[in-house]
Design brief:
heterotrimer, A mainly alpha, B mainly alpha, C alpha+beta, A: mainly alpha, MetI-like fold, two-stranded antiparallel sheet, 13 helices, B: mainly alpha, flat
């Protein structure tokens, strides 16, 4: 027994050491982004990599912001391009001109927030219906949803592009938002959560004469709230990082997202790692902060969704 | 669940359930049908035609010619092979690694535990483009930090051209994919292990079972649903890997995948006759393989 | 008017997605390989032949006869109205060459060198530095004009046939060049670099020569704004013609001009034509050319003399020495977009030790299939 516990202890110490090393390795890319963003050119181009900036400079950010400009926002009337002669949308508000990278951030935040809100609303409703309503065709819809979950978006790339063109949504942030909302993972997750709603409560509400919508908002939503929280963060992060959709759908500088903007900087003929790191920092730091602030809800949420699955 | 006392449900009640059910489904269905299901069917249809970018008119129906051509297209078969290599390698390693990390950290004190959890989750949050850009620099074969570190440690003598060597490049991509995939499984396993019935564990220990036996006989069956879920999401995740290929190698150095090749065929090789139809045929093939793989996974999990 | 910047590497994907979506721009500034050979041949562009009268043609032909033919299809349609041009060349790090004693192999006066001297220089550099000094980059299509020019010039091979209908990579002189490059210590077929990465490595000092170079790079290396003709560490950069047996090489031209996408709107086409005229053939052309940092494609624009616009810039004036070496503009061969992928894939495979002749045969076969 004693030998065994001694061995266990040694095993524990070793595993903690390995874990710490692994954690450092996982942190390293982020460290490299942040220090790289503040390194002067001679560090960036040094023959031997420089572990710590010899001097902290903001030159890379200056270069990033100097590159291009765009209006800070341009709010178009949705679907307005359908009605104008030259198919260009009508704007009801256009902001002051700023460095394009800011506009990319604004676009990205807008995209992620709207996709998050829409997904949460539609998925909560659909998940509740799938879990608790015995309507005809429910099994078929649910199996379709499960099947579609595994489908890579590249598969439907061309049809989706054609469809967006027909809807005149191409090169418009909505063309990235809509497919994100349509992606069925949220419905799947919310169905798992809604299974736990006790049928008796719903029945009691119905007997009391509560309308369906009222039952949903006052009884269902509070119960599945942790699920909505998890889905919200999940969608936010996914949408923020969904580079592929953005690449296909968005073509003009002022409609870029931050990820697409960085990728475009990288594709240009000359390569300035400092500039790219500044861009990468700008793209990742905001979302990391959001994650750290909400991480408790997030970890709770994803586990609950899965355990019930 | 579907086997509830249906006979007691009156027709009026069933009608009400139908109407309410579909009203609640409606907002979601608009998006799901509009932007997933319809394109899916369009994709299947286009894969049987010679559609291309040039002709706006209706394409010609050419049956399964695209699929026959794909079967002979060595570049495509290479991409298919790489796609499977990525999935076959990354799914089990991600599962095993995250299970090991989770079992090593789940009993730690709460702040330490959540620190570890956060760190392993960070690459997911950082975003594929930012992660790719920084790894590209780290892998650099002239002044990349990785070459310097390996040389400093005496493991290699000459710089390795990580992203420029077939046979190495794909593993470099798998490593990046790995770091961006383990976050969620670790979170899931931590909580699954925390929920394992302690009385069973204690009973087994009293009976003299060692750690390994406790793990395989008591804990493993209880975390099985989580494992299944992780298998599924990791598979999905591995099939989504596009940015890594596009931004690191453009499919060169034997790293082409079907996902990237669809994009390349659709928008780079626009001079090829019927390239849209061809790209869609690749999509259909990929979807079929994914469906088979998912079915196999479910079957395996259920048997256990 | 809205202006969009597209990266050359993925700019065509972007335009292709836009064409698919019916969302292409009205006006585009690009090179003939895309405007004429790709989108023009596919029927997306407006014929601009009516914009060029005999005076215009003479003004352009007096600079270089190749420009107009590059912008014109076989059946006489003009899909690009040219504005500027340059010669793509290579560059060397003069300090490194001097340190290695390799500067004796350079004709710094004329910016030319022979194949023999190139080989000797690389040997000297490798002896001094013991590492890769020049990279045959092939991570993607970015900057592929450099690798094409290097391989073709070394022993006088050709890239396409004379009437631009087929690719001729299996030319014995190309095979010899590839074998020579493969056998040289100090030259590495690097599948992790594309043209832009190679420039960055050269700017950084890791590589001692860059095959992806032109006047814009010479004026502002790596776009970093750290001074003309200098690397990051302050070494001198000298632009050079590609090495060839005689020293008189065939340089790849870059021609940029405007094309108009045909979207069926006559008024917009007229407006776009006016804009082109304003940019390419008016008293404002001087500014347009100077902004682009390239050379004018014509002698005069509506009476304004363009021949001396760079007289005040020593670097530009020096660079004009390379312009007579402008070679055949073969980028208008059909299947251009497809063959680019085949080319860099071929270089990767050869660099990895694949059999040269069979690899060339396969890849050239694919390229020629696309050229039909």
């Amino acid at each position: 027994m004693k030998i065994n516990s001694g061995r266990t202890k040694a095993y524990k110490v070793i595993s903690i050491v390995i874990l710490v090393i692994l954690a450092l390795l996982f942190l390293f890319p982020l460290y490299w982004i942040v220090t790289g963003a503040f390194k002067p050119a001679q560090d960036i181009y040094a023959q031997e990599p420089v572990w710590w900036p010899t001097e902290w400079v903001t030159k890379n950010f200056d270069a990033l912001f100097k590159k291009r400009t765009a209006p800070l926002w341009e709010l178009a009337v949705p679907f307005s391009s359908y009605f104008t002669a030259d198919n260009s949308p009508v704007f009801f508000s256009v902001g002051p001109t700023v460095p394009a990278a800011f506009r990319w951030l604004v676009n990205t935040v807008f995209m992620a927030v709207v996709a998050m809100i829409l997904t949460c609303i539609t998925a909560a409703m659909a998940g509740y219906a799938l879990a608790k309503k015995r309507f005809v065709g429910r099994t078929i819809i649910f199996s379709l949803i499960v099947c579609a979950m595994a489908l890579p978006k590249q598969v439907i790339l061309i049809p989706l592009l054609k469809e967006m063109a027909a809807l005149k949504l191409i090169n418009n942030i909505w063309s990235v938002i809509f497919p994100t909302v349509g992606w069925p993972f949220g419905v799947f997750l919310m169905k798992q959560f809604s299974e736990s709603i006790p049928g008796e409560i719903l029945e009691a509400a119905r007997v009391d004469g509560s309308s369906e919508l009222r039952t949903f908002t006052t009884i269902v939503v509070p119960i599945v709230k942790p699920g909505i929280g998890a889905l919200a963060i999940f969608t936010f992060i996914n949408s923020w990082n969904d580079y592929f959709m953005q690449l296909i759908m968005l073509s003009s500088n002022s409609n870029f997202t931050i990820a697409l903007g960085i990728a475009t900087l990288q594709a240009e003929t000359s390569i300035d790692m400092g500039l790219l790191m500044a861009g990468a920092a700008l793209a990742s730091i905001p979302i990391i902060v959001v994650f750290l602030v909400f991480q408790k809800y997030f970890t709770q949420g994803i586990t609950m969704g899965a355990v019930k699955g | 669940m579907a086997k509830q006392p249906k006979q007691s449900m009156s027709r009026a009640l069933q009608r009400r359930e139908n109407i309410n059910g579909y009203l609640f489904m409606l907002p979601s269905l608009i998006f799901f049908v509009g932007f997933v299901i319809i394109p899916m069917f369009m994709c299947i249809f286009m894969s049987l035609t010679d559609a291309n970018m040039r002709d706006q008119a209706l394409p010609h129906f050419i049956g399964i010619k695209n699929f026959v051509d794909l079967w002979k297209d060595e570049d495509f078969l290479g991409a298919l092979k790489n796609t499977f290599l990525i999935v076959v390698v990354s799914v089990p390693t991600v599962c095993a690694f995250s299970l090991w990390v989770a079992s090593a950290i789940y009993k730690l004190k709460s702040p330490v535990l959540s620190a570890f959890r956060c760190i392993f989750y960070l690459p997911v949050v950082t975003g594929s483009v930012a992660v790719t850009v920084v790894w590209k620099w780290m892998y650099d074969n002239y002044n990349g930090i990785l070459n310097t570190a390996l040389k400093g440690a005496g493991l290699i003598e000459k710089n390795i051209n990580f992203l420029g060597t077939p046979g190495i490049a794909i593993w470099c991509i798998i490593i990046i994919l790995f770091t961006t995939s383990v976050g969620q499984p670790i979170v899931l396993y931590v909580s699954a292990l925390g929920n394992v019935d302690q009385s069973l564990v204690e009973a087994a220990e009293v009976d003299g079972a060692n750690h390994m036996q406790v793990f395989w006989k008591i804990k493993w069956p209880q975390i099985m649903p989580t494992t299944l879920y992780i298998l599924v999401i990791t598979t999905i995740n591995s099939f989504q890997c596009f940015a890594l290929i596009q931004l690191l190698t453009s499919g060169g150095s034997d790293t082409d995948t079907v996902m990237f090749r669809i994009y390349w065929t659709a928008f780079k090789l626009t001079e090829q006759q019927g390239h849209f139809g061809y790209a869609n045929a690749m999509g259909v093939v990929l979807a079929i393989f994914i469906a088979i793989l998912s079915a196999v996974q479910f079957r395996l999990a259920r048997e256990k | 008017m809205k202006v969009e910047y597209l990266a050359y590497a993925d700019g065509d994907d972007k335009v292709n997605t836009a064409i698919t979506a019916g969302n292409q721009p009205d006006l585009i500034m690009e090179g003939p390989e895309r405007l004429v050979a790709n989108w023009g041949a596919a029927g997306y562009m407006v014929d601009l032949a009516d914009m060029l009268d005999d005076t215009d043609k003479k003004e352009i032909n007096d600079v270089s006869a190749g420009v107009l033919s590059a912008c014109t299809t076989a059946d006489g349609k003009v899909y690009e109205y040219p504005l500027v041009m340059t010669a793509h060349c290579m560059a060397i790090n003069l300090n490194a060459f001097k340190e290695a004693g390799a500067d004796q192999y350079l004709d710094l006066e004329n910016h030319t060198w022979t194949t023999e001297n190139f080989i000797k220089a690389v040997e000297a550099l490798y002896a001094k530095y013991g590492q890769t000094v020049g990279a045959v980059y092939c991570a993607g299509q970015g900057g592929d004009q450099g690798t094409r020019a290097l391989v073709n010039n070394l022993y006088g091979g050709t890239y396409t046939n004379a009437d631009h209908t087929a690719y001729t990579w299996d030319d014995a002189n190309n095979v010899k060049a590839l074998e020579t490059l493969l056998g040289m210590d100090g030259i590495d077929f690097d599948a992790s670099l594309a043209g832009g990465d190679e420039i960055a490595k050269f700017y950084q000092g890791a590589l001692k020569m860059a095959f992806c170079w032109n006047i814009a790079q010479q004026l502002d290396p790596n776009g970093a704004g750290t001074g003309a003709e200098k690397t990051v560490t302050g070494d001198d950069i000298v632009f050079m013609s590609f090495p060839s047996e005689t020293g008189a090489s065939q340089l790849q031209g870059g021609i940029w001009g405007f094309g108009i996408f045909d979207k069926g709107d006559a008024a917009k086409v007229e407006a776009a034509k006016k804009f082109i005229k304003y940019m390419c053939d008016s008293e404002h052309t001087v500014d347009a050319v100077k902004t682009a940092n390239y050379f004018a494609v014509r002698t005069t624009a509506e009476g304004t003399d363009l021949s001396g616009i760079w007289a005040d810039n020593a670097i530009m004036a020096e660079y004009t020495k390379l312009m007579p070496y402008l070679g055949d503009y073969y980028q208008v061969t059909k299947g251009w977009a497809a063959q680019r992928t085949e080319w860099w894939t071929m270089l990767q495979e050869i660099g990895q030790g694949a059999d040269i002749s069979s690899t060339i045969a396969t890849r050239m076969g694919n390229a020629n299939a696309a050229a039909k």
